[in-house]
Amino acid sequence: MTEERQNTISSAAHDDAANWYARLSSGEATDGDIARHMEWLLEDPSHADAYEQVAVAMRAAGVAEDAARQHYAGDFVVGGKPALGSKLFGLFTWPQAATAFAAAAALLFFVIMPTMMPGEDHYGQQRYEAVAQVERVELADGSIMSLFGGSAATVTMSEDRRVVELGAGRAFFDVTSNKERPFFVRTGTHEVRVVGTRFEVVRAERFARVAVNEGLVSVSVVNDKDAAPLLINPGKVALYEAGGAGPAITEVAAATIGLWADGVLTFRQAHLGDVIEKIAAIFPEHHITLADEELTDLQFSGTLVVSNAARMVEQLGALLDLEVQVTDTEIRISRS
Amino acid sequence: MFDWVKARKKKAEATVHGRSLDELFRIQRGPLIRFVMAKIKNEAEAEEIVQEAFIRFQNKYDPVETASPEALLARIASNLLIDRVRERDARAAREDAWGKLHTAGADEFSPVASVDPARALDAKQRLEAVMALLDTWPEKTRQVFLLHRFEGLSHAEIVARTGIPKSTVEKHMIRAIKALACLRDEE
User: Fold this and answer.
1) Are A211 and A293 contained in the same domain?
2) Alpha carbons B24 and A33: distance in angstroms, whole number
3) What is the mean pLDDT of residues B145-168?
4) Distance from the Cα of residue B45 to its chain's centroid
5) How far is residue A103 from each of residues A108, A111, A112, A155, measured CA to CA in Å?
6) Which of A45, A106, A303, A307 is the most exposed place for a label (fewest CB within 10 A)?
C-alpha cells in the first residue's frame, strides 16, 4: 500500500508540503496559516502523505546533529564566518547585541566589558547582573544564560574553554555543544562541567545546588581534587549544603527545571492547580497550599512575572480575587 | 489541608507550533467541520465526527513519535468520515477519493508516519546522506538550516543572528526541506 500511495504524490504536492512546513515552523505561523494548512491537507489524501514525508525527513535529519555541529561549528557561532555581513562588524554582533540589550534593559541590567578588545574575535570577559527580574542573555558561543533577579555572573570565553563564575544567585544555562571547548560553571565551592545541555546552578550563602533539565553534567568540589566528580542526569537535583558530607540527591520532573528562565510564566485557561504546581516547581523550598480542593479547578489566563514565591502567588491571588496568606511555613490561598 | 502537589499526577503539556492541543483543535475545527459537512450535510453528525476525530487523535498522538500531528489528524478525520459514509452507502464510498485509499484497519493508526522515507535508510546511512547533502548546499542555505533545525531558531531569530533578509531565510529553508525530503529518491 505504501508504494501505491507513494506514486500518488505529485511534485507539486511535495513543493506545497515543503512550503507549508517552512511556514509552520518559521515561529510566525498564524491561526489562519494553521487553518489553511488543514484545509490543504484535507483537499487530497496525497497532501497528508506529502506533508508527513517532509515532516519525517526533517525529524530524521536529527541524526546528523552532532556531526553537523562539529563539522560546521562556524555556522553556529554568533558573528561567525558564514554570517559575515561586513568585515568590520560581522565578528562583533555579540558585544553589539549585548550592549543594545543592556541599553534596552536600562537600569535593570548592567553589562561591563572590561577586556573586550577589537581583534580578539569573540573571546573576552563580560559581567552580567540581573537586578530586579529574570534576564536572559545570549553568550558569544550561542549558549543562553538566564539570570534570576538578584544574581550576577562573569563569563570568560577563551579558545579552549567557556567559563561562567556565578558570583551569587541562580542561573539557568542552555549550552551549545562544543566538545573542543567545554563549558564550566563555578560557584566558588563547586565546578560544573558540561558539553552541551540545559541545567541550573544556584549559589547561596549556605548551599549550592545543581539541577539538570537535559543532557549530562559533572560536578566536582573545588577544594577536594581527590573526590570523584558527580555525574547528574536530567531530572536530578544535587544539593550541597555547607558543612554537609555529600550532596543530597532528589528527583523532579526534568521539564520543570529552569521553568523560570523566560522571566514570565504564561497561562491560558489553565487550572489553578497547574499554575501553583509550576510556581512550586520554581520554588521547591516553599509550601503552597489551597484552602479547599475545589480551588484547583479555577481557571486562570494571564502572565506572571517570575520574582519570588510569595509575590508570584500574591500577584495570582489579586488577578483571581483570592486571599493569600504568607506565613513562615506556608503560602496559603483561600477564597476572599 | 489539601496538598494538591502530591495529589496531582504530572503530565507534560504537548504543544504544536507553540500552541496547546486545545488551541490547535479550536483552530482546526472549522476546516474539519467544512470538510465533513461537504459529504455528510448534517451539522450534528459532522460535529460528532470531528469530535470523535479529536478524541482518537489524542489517544494516538505521541509528541515524540508523531512527525506530523496535522497529517495524523487529517487522516483520522478522513477515515472516520469514510466509515460514516460507507455505513450509509457502500457503493458511493468506493468511488470516493479518500475511500480508494482507505483500507481495513486504518483506524489502528501507528503514531508514526505510514509513509516513512526515513525508514528506507538506517541511522548511519541517513547520517552520511544528510552530511553529504549539507556539503553540497550553498553556505547560507546550510547555515539557515542548521540554526533552524539544531538551534531551534525561528526565522526572525535567524534574521537577527545572521543578517540574512527574512524572505531569503524562507527560500533557503524551503530549498533545504525539499532536498531533505527527496533523500531517499537520490539513493
Assistant:
1) no
2) 11
3) 89
4) 25
5) 9, 9, 12, 19
6) A106
pLDDT at B187 exceeding the cut of 50: no
Task: Please report the pLDDT score of residue A237 as a whole number.
Answer: 87
Chain B CA closest to residue A63 = B127
- B118-186 adopts what CATH topology? Arc Repressor Mutant, subunit A (1.10.10)
Highest mean pLDDT among A29-33, A225-229, B115-119: A29-33
Last residue within a domain, chosen from A256, A280, A303: A256
Enumerate the residues of chain B whose CB falls inside 8 A of the CB of residue A34.
17, 19, 24, 27-28, 70
Distance of alpha carbon B22 from alpha carbon B31, whole angstroms: 15
Q: Chain A partners of B123 at a C-beta cutoff of 8 Å?
A: 63
Q: B117–A35: do the CB atoms touch at under 8 Å?
A: no
| Of B113, B146, B154, Cβ closest to residue A56 | B113
Chain A hits for B77, Cβ within 8 Å: 42
Total residues belonging to chain B = 187
Residue A142: what pLDDT?
A: 87
CB contact under 8 A, A42 and B35: yes
* pLDDT at residue B4 in the model: 44
Chain A closest CA to B89's CA: distance in Å? 21
Chain A neighbors of B170, CB-CB under 8 A: 22, 26
A98 and A167 assigned to the same domain: yes
Cβ–Cβ gap B12/A255 under 8 Å: yes
pLDDT at A118: 37
User: Which residues in chain B (136-165) have CB-CB distances under 8 A to chain A?
Assistant: 139-140, 142-143, 146-151, 153-157, 160-164
Sort strands A183-186 and A162-174 into parallel, antiparallel or unpaired.
Answer: parallel
Cβ atoms of residues A83 and B162 within 8 Å: yes
Same domain, A250 and A270: no
Residue A288 DSSP class: E
pLDDT at B150: 84
> What b/e readout covers A93-111, taking b as 16+ CB neighbours within 10 angstroms?
bbbebbeebbeebeeebeb
Would you tell me how many other CB atoms lie within 10 Å of the CB of residue A249? Answer: 12
> Model ipTM?
0.78
Render pLDDT for A143-170 as a digit per residue (tens, 0 to 9). 899 988 888 899 998 888 899 999 888 8
Range of the domain at A11: 2-64
Average pLDDT across chain B, whole number = 78
Domain ranges of chain B: 11-115, 118-186
B74 in contact with chain A, both atoms CB, cutoff 8 A: yes
**Does A332 or A216 have the greater pLDDT score?**
A332
Please state the rounded mean pLDDT for residues A305-315. Answer: 87
